[in-house]
């Protein structure tokens, strides 16, 4: 249906319904002034005794082409995008960080893009403040991996610490790879920018940052889980309180309409495609079998829901907004 057809269709439907309809789409008279800006975007919910807050950072529109998924024809990728009403020549990648308040500790999992990735992302801090959380009150930052959209929020552009009283905890294999193992000349070319950015954030924090072994408990009720391949030391986090639990997938799975439905597809974001796909399958299998709540860093806001098994892959089923805690 063309846009003209669509207008005629809507007009016809309205005439048939007896509702008023004005041609030309002219502005309504005496309307209220439009706000011209979006409202704050945070979502608060409970998990057992814990209070969690999802903080929207924005969206990154990234052009894509035939190189985007290494092991699928671009036509198939575009078909999957079109089937989900997404544009077919760019990936629109939402970003959502998560705060866990245990009642005693205030923990931030990944830190947003700090407005340094795209003009359309970088609202995490204003949403943190809108949610009534003082950056100084964050006592722990858990990092999943060293991609810029996950660590840039640690510092301002001019190098000041955004969360001055937070202990920063990172997966040891991730630190070892980026900070000790590779250099600008030995790192894969596509990851050189990530390496330089990781140095900008972490080089002067060697003494302050705490490294942990994946698999260990990193905060009360929060266990890190190895999910390698996206980067060499990428982890997810399982959060448990009482009988409730949730898997914070981080980037185990990128955009769900592509990579939950097609878990074996290997986007160029995954440094080791086959390894990431193996960890992704294992993780999606586990959360589907356990009917576990999940949060995905690049899922549509509030980025929380469940994973259901389908014939060929999985489906992401978003939560319904809870109006009260
Ligand atoms: Zn990411």
Commentary on this structure:
The protein has helices at residues 3-17, 74-83, 124-130, 148-151, 172-181, 192-202, 256-259, 273-289; strands at residues 42-47, 50-63, 90-101, 106-109, 140-142, 167-171, 210-212, 217-219, 222-226, 235-241, 244-250, 293-296, 304-309, 314-318. The radius of gyration is 22 Å and the shape is globular. The mean pLDDT is 92. The protein has one domain (41-318): Ribonuclease Z/Hydroxyacylglutathione hydrolase-like (Metallo-beta-lactamase, Chain A, 4-Layer Sandwich). The chain is an alpha/beta fold. Helix 3 links the parallel strand 4 and strand 5. Strands 1-2-3-4-5-6-7 form a seven-stranded mixed β-sheet. A seven-stranded mixed β-sheet has the order 8-9-10-11-12-13-14. Bound molecules: zinc ion. The site of zinc ion has 6 residues, from helix 4. Zinc ion binds at residues 147, 149-150, 251, 297-298.
Descriptive key words:
325 residues, alpha/beta, Metallo-beta-lactamase, Chain A, 7-stranded mixed β-sheet
CATH top level? Answer: Alpha Beta
The residue-averaged pLDDT reads 92
Main sheet specs: 7 strands, mixed
Number of DSSP E strands: 14
Strand/helix succession: HEEHEEHEHEHHEEEEEHHEEE
Strand sequence of the main sheet, in spatial order? 1-2-3-4-5-6-7
- For CATH, the homologous superfamily is named as Ribonuclease Z/Hydroxyacylglutathione hydrolase-like
| Spatial shape | globular
Derived structural class: alpha/beta
Work out the radius of gyration.
Answer: 22 Å
Task: Work out the strand percent.
Answer: 25-35%
Taking the alpha carbons of the first and last residues, their distance comes to 44 Å
CATH topology: Metallo-beta-lactamase, Chain A
Poorly predicted regions are: none
């Amino acid at each position: 249906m063309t846009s003209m057809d669509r207008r005629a269709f809507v007009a016809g439907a309205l005439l048939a319904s007896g509702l008023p309809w004005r041609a030309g789409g002219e502005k309504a008279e005496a309307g209220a002034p439009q706000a011209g800006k979006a409202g704050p975007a945070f979502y608060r919910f409970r998990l057992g005794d814990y209070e969690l807050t999802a903080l929207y950072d924005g969206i990154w529109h990234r052009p894509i082409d035939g190189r985007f998924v290494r092991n699928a024809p671009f036509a198939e990728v575009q078909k999957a995008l079109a089937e989900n009403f997404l544009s077919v020549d760019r990936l629109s990648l939402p970003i959502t960080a998560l705060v866990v308040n245990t009642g005693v500790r205030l923990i931030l999992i990944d830190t947003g893009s700090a407005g340094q990735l795209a003009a359309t992302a970088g609202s995490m801090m204003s949403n943190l403040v809108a949610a009534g959380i003082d950056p100084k009150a964050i006592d722990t930052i858990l990092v999943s991996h060293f991609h810029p959209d996950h660590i840039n929020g640690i510092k301002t552009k001019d190098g000041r610490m955004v969360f001055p009283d937070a202990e920063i905890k990172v997966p040891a294999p991730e630190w070892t790879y980026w900070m000790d193992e590779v250099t600008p000349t030995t790192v894969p070319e596509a990851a050189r920018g990530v390496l330089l950015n990781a140095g900008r954030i972490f080089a002067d924090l060697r003494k302050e940052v705490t490294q942990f072994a994946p698999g260990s408990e990193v905060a009360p009720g929060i266990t890190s889980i190895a999910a390698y391949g996206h980067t060499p030391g990428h982890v997810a986090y399982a959060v448990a309180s009482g009988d409730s639990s949730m898997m914070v997938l981080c980037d185990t799975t990128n955009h769900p309409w592509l990579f939950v439905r097609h878990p074996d597809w290997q986007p160029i974001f995954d440094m080791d495609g086959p390894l990431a796909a193996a960890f992704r399958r294992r993780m999606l299998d586990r959360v589907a079998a356990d009917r576990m709540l999940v949060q995905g860093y690049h899922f549509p806001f509030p980025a929380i829901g469940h994973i259901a098994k389908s014939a060929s892959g999985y489906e992401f089923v978003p939560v319904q907004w809870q109006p009260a805690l």
